[in-house]
# Entry
Amino acid sequence: LEKIDNIKELKKFDLKMKELESESNKAIENAESDKYRVFDLGNGFILYVGKSAANNDELTMKFAKANDLWMHARGAAGSHAIIRLKKEENPPKEIIKKAASVVAYYSQARNAKYVPVCYTFKKYVRKPKGANPGSVVLQKETVVMVEPKLPE
# Structure
């Protein structure tokens, strides 16, 4: 940057920086998709689903923000999931049900006709001290019954 002494070189430098930024953003997105399963639910809602107990911990405790919607199959081992939300946003019921179906699919209750899936805002999810990976405690929750399936 200190060696630039004209507009043409400055424009070349700017273009190069934008290319590097784009490559960096793609690398971050790829790293997230390696850690989590990612589903586009439509209407701008993205669902992130953990792949293992360690991924569940990271997804819930580090990746998720306080106002994101957290989901898990109730009464069965399975993946934690997050719907990334903008501040003060509530997703429509059909988005919640679509996400809950994916969560049920990635649980041990996959072969059941209907699976209860609990959901709450991440701010109501706590990890007890010394708990096993993937173990959490919920303060508030809502339960929806869904068929386990992946989105089309």
